[in-house]
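Objective 1.3, modelling of assemblies. Example input:
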Amino acid sequence: MGMWDTGVHTGYQPVQPIKFSHELHAGTNQIDCQYCHAGAFKSKNSTIPSLNVCMNCHKSVQATEKYDGEISPEIQKIYTALGYDPATMTYDHSKEKPVEWVRVHNLPDFAYFNHSQHVVVGEEAIRKEKGLKPNEPVCFACHGPVDTMEEIYQYSPLTMKWCVNCHKDTKLEVKGNAFYDKIIEAHEKIKKGEKITPAALGGLECGKCHY
Amino acid sequence: MESNKKYWKGLEEYKNTPDFVENNKNEFAEPLPIEDVLNEAGLSTVTPRRDFLKALGFGLGAVTLAACQTAPVHKSIPYLVKPEEVVPGIPNYYVSSFNGQSVLVKTREGRPIKIEPNPNAGTFNCGTDAQAQASVLDLYDVSKLKAPVLKDAESNWAEIDKFVQAELNKAQASGKKIRIVSSSVSSPSTKAVVADFTTAYPTTKHVQYDAVSYTGIIKANENSFGKAVIPKYNFDKADLIVSFGADFLGTWISGEEFTSQYVSNRDHKSLKAGKMSRHFQFEAGMSLTGTNADTRVPVKLSEEGPALIALYNAITGNALSGAALPNNVTADKALKLIAKELLQNKGKSLVVSGSNDVSTQILVNAINSAIGSYGTTIDLDNPCKRYAGNDAEFAEFINEMNRGEVAAVFFLDSNPAYDVANAKGFTDGLAKVGLKVSFSDRKDETSTLCNVIAINHNYLESWGDANAYEGYYSIVQPTINPVFNSRQAEESLLIWSNGPVKEYYQYVRNNWEKSILPALGKTWQDVLQTGVFASALKPAGTYTFSLSLAAVIPSIVNNSKALAKDIELQVYESIPMRDGKHANNAFLQELPDPVSKVTWDNYIALAPKFAKELGFKEFDIVSIKDDKGYEIELPVLIQPGQAQGTASVALGYGRTKVGKAGDNVGKNAYPFVSFTNGTSKYATTVKLSGTGKTEELAQTQTHHSFEGRNIIREATFTEYKKNPAAGSGNDHAKHKTYDLWDKYEKPGNNWVMAIDLNACTGCGSCIVACNVENNIPVVGKTEVRRRREMHWIRIDRYYSFNVEGEGHAEEAHAHGEHGNGINSVTKEKEIAHLDNLDNVSVVHQPMLCQHCDHAPCETVCPVLATVHSSDGLNHMAYNRCVGTRYCANNCPYKVRRFNWFNYWNDSRFDNYLNNEFTQLVLNPDVTTRSRGVMEKCSMCIQRIQAGKLQAKIEKRPLKDGDIKMACQQACSANAIIFGDGNDPNSEVSKALRSERIYYVLEEINVQPGIGYMTKIRNTDTTVQA
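Predicted structure (tokens):
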């Protein structure tokens, strides 16, 4: 262990208050990532789903078959948090208690990261660069094979070097996005035929992520 | 470090025990002698440097070891049930109103964090003032009460309602009077609530008063034209503006709106069209408006009346007595010339007066009638409804209380124990009232005297509406759930009057759907979307003044004589603090006064010559005593341009019960206000005496002259018309320049800015907007004295003096060193020797990081923490900065700011941010900077990045105007133009092609990214002394 690895938490896999299995949901059941992490496509935050999203399914899916007819204790935790009584199917808002998930991916406050920039604008480029299969969501590029993770863990180092390398190597897919037309036009005058990466468009400049 | 360990952190850390948090907060395990160094001992403190280094060494080791192992556990707590419209990370905007002006409230995850102008605001299609910008901080004020108070003890609403209703029934049975005392209410729904309350309790009367009153104008218009209103002033239609003590660009009636009107005849677009209005200002104290005037003539307060009579005589050819200005030749001469110009500009001129005296305002009406202002520059048919206070009614209310006729009183948005002159009469009377209810949100000067404090919502938690102008309605809608156990005042009144609708939201909606919406053909949903509805303006009628001035003139003359007896004191609203209602707002306390640049204090402003005569130096504490016996001690500020024989003191300071930021800041000047002839007067006579004490005011600018260097370039309008490049330095052939550095390529965007010095009035709302947007810390009075304020944008104010017999300052500036031998640029050391500092010219220059292409800061940074970007910005990476401060030393513009402390987490800076509640105001897209790092204007890079991303997601090119800077948005004068310099058609590119453009310190070839446009003055050279 050297100083290089100080603060690098690859593999961080904290115990979560609810034993939520990404393997089951994203793998076996093939639920799309953005069904739960809807923010990733609009916002800088991917957002942890609020429990009303869980309830869309778990109002009826209770896994009783695995627990001798009882409701799964993990699903019961959702009900408890919401003050929901599955017998009467009513909510008691006075018993609400938010779930305190342990955050797995901790980027420092001084680094700005925006999910939508990567999963919407950069989707195609990232897919190509990381060689993702068509059926794999773009999220896997950084979050790894989430569909095989029983418990979620940090797949990538989330170091600045890791960010920068990708920004240096990835060829931007600028066709069809009118935003780049003006930028590229100016750019190509200087760099004829060179690969256009985020770095070439100034993506490595400090202020692009640190403000 | 690959690791499969599920826990590698100590248990105490996982649980976040207080011990751990406390220990971890301190970087050093042992206390360091910082306190000693900071305190009086200074650097001669007993702890030797070696100990310091030892502690530092230990601290560093400990931190390094700790860092290998641990990182704090972060919790993520999502919504249980997420509101549909909230996406964490994406702001939502809601329309609301602040003081009658329609605004947009930006919220993040349900927290209001920024106020922005509403682009659909019609009449108020201008920026926002400093108060509006700072108002988000009031919401998160820890000095507010968390629950209602009954008889000095925390209570609940059920008990309060029981008590108040019982008392009201008693009052009703006794037949005694009930009074609702408020500052001006324009809200139709609040008025309806008061009317309902009055129906339930018929002895109720609504008494409106304003701490700074406009009763004089209202009464004068009632007298002259039978319309008891404040008219709508159209400064945009005035080619010639003459103001007598009215600070119409700052505090007078509707400063932001007037600024935008005024500037529309003076900014770069107007100049291009060959048009510029002319503005004369006659005033005693140096106001913001005075600093912008083309010609400013200092007159004593006692001379304002005679000056108006003289102007009236000169215009109409009458010979009314009392027009003599024996001691002010300049004013006398100026008035005769102005009269001529006014007659030449009939229907295109406007004369305004800041006086609250009815007689004076009647005379002003007569003058405006004679020059044909009614129906053009003054509109009496679409009047302003923001102020409706009646000083006489309030005075009578105090009498009623003292006579024991009042059984119950309610204070809504008013604090008379602090802001009325007759505070003693008020408090004595209040003691005789049975039920005293304050709707204040805190234990303030008045509410502590009340038996019930029914804490009201902040406006950001409220439903409501406003009616700023006849036919102009705007909505107030809540942007956050009430934080504390407060209840909206109107709702309380509805409950106590037991009306059929008790929920105020429903009440407002019913009221709109019944009385306002049908006429406009709109629905409630439309209101919530657009926020504002205005019916078409009624045609403005022409009114002719036809009454006799026989009764008016003697009153003016007598007032003038009474004032001339002694030193004349003017009390006025200052731009940052206004009437003092927001005195606990640290952003406003630290906003420098636009003229004196003083923060965190009021002071007594004296002219240099007059102060010398009295034997006072700057910062001497003097005692100010009026003939009623009220006495305060304040430090002296030497104010060039202040009329001789007068002194000015700002209102709004000296609050004693407002909260931890505002308590005991400055002294209260309201007791100097007097009540005569039915209105409050803001001028009186005082005696000044030395106390032998001194106190340094916390000024953000202490050097007042630009020393003739060409950082300020000006020209007169006459010169401009001959040559648009006059004074800018652009009419000379450029030297060939050589460069040590390579040129930076900017293949994409090139973010640049243009600042129009002729538009900027210097008001400072950009400063507060920047503070809020960029999480800029407030440092407090002591640190400002050490020149450690953190503002990323400042407004430099420079004086220059027109020395008699040496020609005109403006011309000399215009020519600079290549001048024609006349050079009246005043050097700093000369100011002290000048005898006559009355004819002062002022320039305001917004100064922020210039984002130089060849930035001197970049070359000296040893760690590359500040570097250049390919889109024209100078980046600052806080996490890279090690705090050498070389960059700040090497910056020719002095715009870099160093964090000497963790201002947001240090008990010594208990101004505002030092608690979790107030920290909710922070903009989550901007890092809070830590102690030891440098910061500066980032050109709102978070806004640039967000704007670019939005365009990328929508797959469209970035449009000019997509991205707006926080300072630019707040500016009513549109003095700041931002955009892409690589786009030849962008607003900023067009502006930068102007002949007036110059770059500050161009000659050192740092190639700044911000161009300034020359200051143009439309001086009447014949009027200058």
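Confidence is low (pLDDT under 50) at residues 1-18, 41-45, 57-69, 804-824 of chain B.
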